[in-house]
Structure to design on (715 residues):
């Protein structure tokens, strides 16, 4: 309080020059605290239980909270006395927004955060009676054998509860000599690989058995966060999270964006469901939601691993990377090369020296992809235990986009060395659309000459539809089913398995014969060009993330504000998943579970709406970059020429496009993000228009499939 009174006296008697000096001091202190915090966070990621780390973190928190409270009290008084200019007002807002913690609360919150992280990061399950193996087929067989033995032991026929029971029995078994699954990476690999429902059920169930312990500590964490948020004028912590994005009525805006893209998502959902029925039969309802465990992903947020079930032929970029003999460092250098080609800077010497890309020397590292700004001269780092897949190649580009942002605004005052989180998430993904252009895949030798230059064929006559058969909305409205209650759908699509083994194999043949009756298989193959395959697989990866990302925060916002039924928190989660994603669990999920906690960002206490908004912003950015590359200048008003489709736009080497990115990123948070977008790209609102233009070829393809096979749309 004494410091506060001294500053008031100081500003009553001194000139504006002293205010500038005061802000210089605030920014220098902010930089120092950010640097110390970054060091602690980096060490915690590499070795969570490192000796002395907790004491360092406590000392840091105590000093930072005390400093920030004093600074914000002074800034509040200066604001009320109209002593600040526009730039200073913005710095004061950015420094003092968000929940306001006292030290004791911050320490308790840190302990709860560590407890949640420990539950999530330390998931490990060993399969009884198995032997250690790294082979995915052997892992799949071991799980299948274990589930079968449990069923025999219990003397029961196959029901929806087999996997639940075997999951409960296997949780907690950890023996080095057994085949063990450690962390989300191991679970995800088999989820993507396996096509056996019993295996997928077991994996899906075990993961949620292991993370359900987050339920109580998470509630205590939210209670603390709500208290701190209300202390600083927010309704709850969700209100504080939304404030960071600086979008008035964010909830309404998010729903409008979701509704704009829902017709396209529903088309994809319907076609995927149709194809899954060919494999799994009546386990997948013809007109209802899709069982979540069958979508090739622990969280049903990315479906690209199903491409081989849906597309007659696929381009396996993972195999091609392996055959070319790439290394992780090679992938990082190629990602860097893309940014450099656009006139953006190379990674720093510190990046190459300090980044961690394997667990070889950091066995305890929490390897979720992270780009770190250490707030020291040129010190930017990557933490990512990378494999050798195209998904890893994407993550590297994504995280390098964050680092390009850090480098671009490094010269800004410390408080401005940040950006709207949705915009920050969009840079690397916008670049990745350029990487996915066939021309660049050819440049990387991931597709060959004939694949690049093969002409796109017209399929309108073969499929008996014209170019203007139906619009997005026509197809969606015409095929949408009337909405039923959650319980009706839930009971309707809960799998009813045949008691004999081989049930699924029997249905593959029966359904394949029924669904392809009168259809020439070559006709389906002819339908797909290289462009079709690439954009279809891209859509399977990207589009399901949109409803998933909205679900993650719409649910948490309701949780934070207390508007969910306290006795049915988990059931409420699945009601929302049904509404937004069109998915259901394969069996009843009781209130002992905490299924939203199955995703890393819940234990990490990270808002997710940034990824939802980024899904739209990244397409807007890419379209602007594409136009700059094509026309040679920014803020192009006219559409792309008919000869250039957005999904084939090659921006590699475009210095004009690079200047747009640098202009956006170099401003940090010195301006409102909408003003930055308006000045650098000509428009300031988030829209679904660019996304829909990008996927226009896919929309046409999906529409043809829907019309050809009379595929129901909706759930």
């Amino acid at each position: 309080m004494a410091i506060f009174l001294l500053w008031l006296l100081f500003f009553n008697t001194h000139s504006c020059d002293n205010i500038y000096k005061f802000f210089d001091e605030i920014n220098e202190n902010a930089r120092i605290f950010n640097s110390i915090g970054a060091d602690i966070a980096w060490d915690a990621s590499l070795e969570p239980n490192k000796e002395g780390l907790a004491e360092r973190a406590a000392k840091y928190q105590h000093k930072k909270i005390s400093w920030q409270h004093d600074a914000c009290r002074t800034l509040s008084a200066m604001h009320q006395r109209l002593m600040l200019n526009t730039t200073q007002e913005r710095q004061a807002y950015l420094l003092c927004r968000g929940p306001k913690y006292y030290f004791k609360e911050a320490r308790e919150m840190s302990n709860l955060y560590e407890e949640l992280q420990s539950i999530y990061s330390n998931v490990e399950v060993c399969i009884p009676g198995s032997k250690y193996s790294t082979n995915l087929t052997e892992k799949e067989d071991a799980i299948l054998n274990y589930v079968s033995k449990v069923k025999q032991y219990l003397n029961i026929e196959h029901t929806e509860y087999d996997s639940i029971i075997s999951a409960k029995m296997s949780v907690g078994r950890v023996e080095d000599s057994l085949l063990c699954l450690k962390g989300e990476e191991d679970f995800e690999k088999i989820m993507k690989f396996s096509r056996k429902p019993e295996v997928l059920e077991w994996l899906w169930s075990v993961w949620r058995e292991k993370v359900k312990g987050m339920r109580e500590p998470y509630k205590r964490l939210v209670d603390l966060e709500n208290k701190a948020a209300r202390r600083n004028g927010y309704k709850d912590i969700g209100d504080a999270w939304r404030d960071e994005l600086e979008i008035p009525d964010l909830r309404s805006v998010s729903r409008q964006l979701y509704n704009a893209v829902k017709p396209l998502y529903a088309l994809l959902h319907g076609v995927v469901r149709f194809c899954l029925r060919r494999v799994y039969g009546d386990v997948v309802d013809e007109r209802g939601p899709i069982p979540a465990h069958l979508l090739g992903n622990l969280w049903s947020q990315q479906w690209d691993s199903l491409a081989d079930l849906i597309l007659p032929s696929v381009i396996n970029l993972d195999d091609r990377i392996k055959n070319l003999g790439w290394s992780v460092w090679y992938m990082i250098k190629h990602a860097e090369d893309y940014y450099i080609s656009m006139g953006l800077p190379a990674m720093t010497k510190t990046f190459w020296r300090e980044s961690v890309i394997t667990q070889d020397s950091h066995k305890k590292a929490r390897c979720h992809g992270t780009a770190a700004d250490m707030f020291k001269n040129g010190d930017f780092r990557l933490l990512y235990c990378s494999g050798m897949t195209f998904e890893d190649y994407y993550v590297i580009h994504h995280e390098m986009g964050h680092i390009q942002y850090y480098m671009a605004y490094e010269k800004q005052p410390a408080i401005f060395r940040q950006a709207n989180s949705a915009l920050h998430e969009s840079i690397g993904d916008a670049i990745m659309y350029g990487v996915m252009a066939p021309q660049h895949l050819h440049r990387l030798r991931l597709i060959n000459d004939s694949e690049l230059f093969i002409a796109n064929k017209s399929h309108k006559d073969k499929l008996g539809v014209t170019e203007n058969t139906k619009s997005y909305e026509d197809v969606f409205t015409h095929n949408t089913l009337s909405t039923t209650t959650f319980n009706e759908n839930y009971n309707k699509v809960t799998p009813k398995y045949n008691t004999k083994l081989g049930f699924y194999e029997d249905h593959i043949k029966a359904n394949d014969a029924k669904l392809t009756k009168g259809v020439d298989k070559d006709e389906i193959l002819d339908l797909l060009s290289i462009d079709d395959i690439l954009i279809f697989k891209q859509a399977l990866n990207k589009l399901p993330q949109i409803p998933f990302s909205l679900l993650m925060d719409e649910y948490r916002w309701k949780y934070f504000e207390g508007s969910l039924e306290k006795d049915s928190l988990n059931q409420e989660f699945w009601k929302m998943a049904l509404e937004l994603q069109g998915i259901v669990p394969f069996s009843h999920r009781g209130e002992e579970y905490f299924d939203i906690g199955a995703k890393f960002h819940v234990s990490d206490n990270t808002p997710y709406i940034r990824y939802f908004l980024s899904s739209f912003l990244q397409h807007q950015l890419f379209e602007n970059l594409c136009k700059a590359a094509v026309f040679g200048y920014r803020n192009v008003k006219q559409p792309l020429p008919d000869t250039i489709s957005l999904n084939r736009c090659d921006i590699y080497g475009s210095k004009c496009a690079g200047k747009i990115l640098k202009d956006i990123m170099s401003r940090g948070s010195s301006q409102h993000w909408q003003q930055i977008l308006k000045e650098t790209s000509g428009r300031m609102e988030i829209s679904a228009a660019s996304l829909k233009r990008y996927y226009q070829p896919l929309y046409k393809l999906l529409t043809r499939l829907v019309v050809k096979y009379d595929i129901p749309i909706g759930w």
Confidence is low (pLDDT under 50) at residues 455-522.
